[in-house]
Every structure is written in C-alpha cells, then in structure tokens.
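JOB MANIFEST
job_type = single_chain_structure
chain_count = 1
residues = 350
[input]
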Amino acid sequence: MDRNSVIGIVLIGAIFILWFQLNKPSKEEIELAQRRNDSIANVEREAQLREQMLRDSTASMQTTTGTISSPTVIDTEAKRKNEFYSLENELIKLVVSTKGGRPYSVQLKEYQTFDSLPLVLFDGDSTIFELNYYYNNKSEQTNNLFFSAVNTEPEQTVTSSIGSITMRYSYSENEYLEYVYTLAPDSYEVDMKINMVGLSELRPAQGNELGLKWEFYSPKQERGWKNESFYTTAYFKPTNGDVDFFNARSKKDVAEEYIPTAVDWIAYKDQFFSSVIMPKNPFAYATIQSIAMPEDGKFIKQFRSEIGLKYTNPANESMDFAFYFGPNKFKFLRAEYGDIELHNMVSVGR
C-alpha cells in the first residue's frame, strides 16, 4: 500500500469520526427523547385505565339504585370502591368519581369529534382535582380519598330545576370535607361549593393557603393533530392584569407561568372548546403548565395548575367556584362572562 493510499484511509477515518461526533445526539436531545417515550408509555397506560374505568362506570350505574344517606362513621379506605355519579342537562354531562370526589369526565352533548364520537373534554384516572393539606398531622391528598355520595341519585337529568351531586369525606360524624356540584337546565356552567365542617385540625401543606391541583390531558378532537395543537393552550387572568396565555405554536415542550398574586380564572382551551375554573373570590396565586404531547397521539396537551386557596376557619368554611365547560363562542362568552373578560381567550369569530 503506497503512502497516498494510507493518507486517504486516515482522512476517511478522521472524517467518519468527525461526522459521528457532530451528529451524536446531545444530552438534552437524549433527555427529550426519553421524556417523549415516557409520555407515550404514560398515555397508553392511561388509555387502558380509562377504558377499564368506563366499563366499571357502566356496570356501576347499571347496578346502583336508590340513594345513599349521609355517612356517620369514619371512612375506611380499604373497603371502599370507586363509583360514578352523573349530572346532565341538554348541553353537558358531568361524571363525578367517589375516588377523590372529583370531576371525572365532561361530555358536550351537542357536539361530536371529527369521526362522529362523543365529544369529551377530559376523562379518566389521569384527571386530578385535589386538595392538599395536613389533618391531625397526617398529609392528605384528596384524589386518593374515597368520598361518599350524600342523598344523591346515581344518574340525574336536569330538565326543569337545578340538580346536584354531594360528595363527602368524613373523619368523624361531625368532621368532614364536602364537595357540592350543581347544574341548571340549559347551562354550560357547573357550580361547585367546598364545605369544611369541624376540621379544626386542618393545616395547609405549605404556606398559609390551601393547595389545589387541577390537571388533565386534552384529547384530540379534530382531524388534523398539528392544526389543533396550534389552538390548544392555557389562558389565565390575573386580577390586576390582562388576560394572558401560552403561545400554542412555541417549539418548547413545556410552558410554565407562576402568578404570585390574585388570579380570577384559569382556562384549558382547545381549538373549539374550553374548560375554565372561576373562583367566587380570586385564587391567592397559581402556577400553570402546558405540556406538549407526542405528535399524532391521542392527546394534544397536558394541563397542570397548582393553586392557592384562601381560607380562614376550617371548622366552618365554604368556598365557591364555577366551571365553564363549553364552546369558544366570543359573543356568548362576552354576554355571559364579560365582567371577567372570558371572551378575550377567543381570537377567532369575534
């Protein structure tokens, strides 16, 4: 082998090594790929859980009749099972789970997905609506607690008067946490009242406010995943500021905003519909996240909020909220919620 051939082989080897180093994925790219793989695995597990829970929900509603009276003894988690209660009118159907006492799913009855399936804003065990606190020096996350339905029928259809679901978690006969959901006919709004009765030993998990978590995965509703993702994001309204939002077209996987002051509302918005939580008295603070899901999957974004709730007397305290579950119609939102500027999360159709 002559000298030129040796030099040529060495140069080819050097070029190959340089190409490999330049194209080797960075640490950040490796971590991003791992996060995406983990997200896919989580979504698949959650889809399986959701399908199972829906089967359980159907079976539960077929076999449960009558009403359940107020619990008078301490709830024992080991002997409880998850049950589902529904409240619906002409426009929406809300399903509440006894595990966590939380909104489990919401369906908009007037609408369908692009492939003619029921249009569901969220559902499944991945949905979180929980309070975090200490009670008798024990850490509690209400999503893990089994509530009891109080004087509530398993299925209610609201036609002429207001319907309600009451979920109660009892520490004793005179110590309990209660969620009351109410729905009026022909309304997209679900009112919620949190009642704390006799909970004098309740303490916040951190700071001076009660912690509230609200999280769910926003499912794909339209034919084009990418186009829908351009309109799926979180909006929020600081009490002393303008309506703000995350750029849905950002290339960042995670968008986050910490609002250290009062917040009027938080909205999880997709292309045509929104889920909004609106407290009667502003939230003390909020940290809001929007997390991109793998492209062309079943979900567009995961939304997360950690919220501070002001309270004064857990032995006798009530907190009032309203949820809006409905279409992004500018004129309707301006007419019904113009005082809190909810219409300003709609940029199309003004």
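[summary]
The two ends are 77 Å apart (CA to CA).
The longest helix spans residues 27-63.
exit_status = 0
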